[in-house]
Structures are given as structure tokens and as C-alpha cells.
């Protein structure tokens, strides 16, 4: 497969996602500078300290993503005893090693920026349930195995995100008291998780099962999701415009600090991807399952991280700003890792030259 093939397989929206994000950031900054009334326009009705207009954008990011998850495969796949070993590896990588490694990199690279560091940590806690489906498809991973991991992570985030956030931000980081003070309570995070993950998760499950029952799988996948799926990107772009319109002065005044946020994220994506892929290769795991493991462990649910940061710390917080940098860094890095995965399929798993098929 030629290198251009992967890029061409992306939709127009996904192909230029970094461009849309940068454009949204620039538009938001310009609005913040030249249209002072924009802040009043986005205020008004509040939902747990988040304006309704912002909440709608956050829900729009999550609902289509959680509608794509194939929850109906959970029962049949989990009934296979062979999957439990791989599932254990995924759970350790995603919920034990991943968050700890992101915290370590955040502290190593941002010791003097506690609020930006907290935003990076929130990104590390949010396990990927959206873009991983795309990366997995492009790298010829196992779609069934990816579906089970996404479904499991979607459910586990409801239970684990709040306690892990409290543990890493308050206990491990000591509230960051000596470095500037990042203090949150369990309910602050839990209510944001319930509001911005619980509600769209319920909506996604209801939407999927209702439409599968009424219009069938073929029409759902071919006629509904191609139009509903891009709503997530529109919600992300809208939220970024709002955030940067409120943070334009902060971004310009601290552009160096904003750029520093990219460092721990790049380190994290790289270490988690190559580390997980190497472990799976050593264990003799087939390529299609190995690459699914690697992308699930290395990518993050930046939509959720942004939603939690906004809901917990506020739309104008440095935590929210740091979380927003996530997709700008993740998308080009993970796309590059798709090419690396396809190359390693030939080097490590011995895929025939000129093909991209996964091993059995």
C-alpha cells in the first residue's frame, strides 16, 4: 500500500482535522479580541456552572461518538474465553499504566505550570472511544476487538474517571499546593462525568438500539451515521471557537506555555503506542489485535477531557485550554503512527511486501 493510500481513506473532515482545529482556534481568538460582546453572548442559563450554549456543544461532541459504539457485540465477544487475556492487557494499559505515565510526563515537563499540568492529566485519564475506531481501521486492526475495547472503556469511564482524577490531582499531585494550587472535590468531577459522559452515553445507546430496530443495520450505518457522525466534529469546532474567544488574551500572553503542553502529550502517545505494540508482539499476539491494543492504549478521548475540564474548572480555565490542545497534537501524531504500524506489520509480523492485510 502506498503512503498516500492511508490519507485518501480518510473522509474530508477527518483528513483536515488539524486544519479545522487551528482555524477554530484562530477564529475564536479574533472574536475574543475584536468582539467583546461574545462573552455575554455565551453566558445565560447555567448548568452546573457551565452555560447552556457550551453544554450543548459538549453534548454534540459526545453523542455521535457514543452512538457508533457497537454495544451489541459485548455479549458474544465476552463469551469467548480467548479474549479475556487480551482484555486484561488492555485494562492494565488503559487504566493502570496509561494514566500513571501521562501524570509522570506532565510533572516532568510542566512542573511549574500546575493548571496546564492538571489539564494534561485529565487528557491522560480519558480513554479513547472515538478516533481509535478510525486509526484502527486505517491500520487494519481487528474491528470486532476494537468494538469490545471501546464499549468496555465507555462504560468504565463512568465509574473510574472521577476517582482516578481525584487520586492523581489531589493525592499523587498533593493538590499541587506548592506549585500553585489545583484543588477539586470528588463531586465536582463526578457531576461533570455524569453530565457530559453519562447523558450522551445514555443517548447514544438509546439512539443506536432504537434505530437498529426500526431502520436496520444497513440503513443505520449507510444512511444515518454518515450524516450524524460529523455532528461530533461540529460540536468540537464550536466548543473550541467559544473557548478561544474567551481565552484569546490568555493564549497570546502565554503562547510559550501553551506550546509546552504539546511535549508531554507527544511523549505519551509515542511511549504508549510502541510499548504496547512491542509487548503484544513479544507475547505472540496477531497483528490485528496488537495494533488495536496499541492505538487504544495510546490515544485519548479528548472530547471527554475537554468536557470534564470545562465542567470542573470552567470554560476560561487553563485546565480547559490545555485539554483543548489535545486533539491538535493527537490527530497528526496518531496518523503518523498508522504508517508506522503498517510498516511494522511487515517487519515484525512478516506481512507480504505490498500488502497491508493483518495476520490471522
Question: How does this model look, in words?
Answer:
Helix 9 crosses helix 10 and helix 14 (262-282) runs antiparallel to helix 15. The chain has helices at 3-9, 12-15, 17-34, 38-41, 52-68, 74-78, 83-109, 114-125, 131-138, 143-172, 186-228, 231-253, 255-260, 262-282, 287-298, 302-313, 318-348, and strands spanning 46-47, 50-51. The relative contact order is 0.18. Strand 1 (46-47) and strand 2 (50-51) form a beta hairpin. A two-stranded antiparallel sheet has the order 1-2. It is mainly alpha-helical and 360 residues long. It has one domain (3-345): Na+/H+ antiporter like fold (Up-down Bundle), CATH 1.20.1530. Helices cover 78% and strands 1% of the residues. Keywords: Arsenical resistance, Cell membrane, Membrane, Transmembrane, Transmembrane helix, Transport. One of its GO terms (cellular component) is plasma membrane. It holds the Pfam family SBF. Belongs to the arsenical resistance-3 (ACR3) (TC 2.A.59) family.
Layout: helices, strands, pairs:
Blueprint: H1 3-9, H2 12-15, H3 17-34, H4 38-41, E1 46-47, E2 50-51, H5 52-68, H6 74-78, H7 83-109, H8 114-125, H9 131-138, H10 143-172, H11 186-228, H12 231-253, H13 255-260, H14 262-282, H15 287-298, H16 302-313, H17 318-348
Antiparallel strand pairs: 1-2
Transmembrane segments: 12-35, 47-66, 87-110, 116-135, 147-169, 189-212, 224-246, 266-283, 321-344
Membrane topology: Multi-pass membrane protein
Protein name: Arsenical-resistance protein ACR3
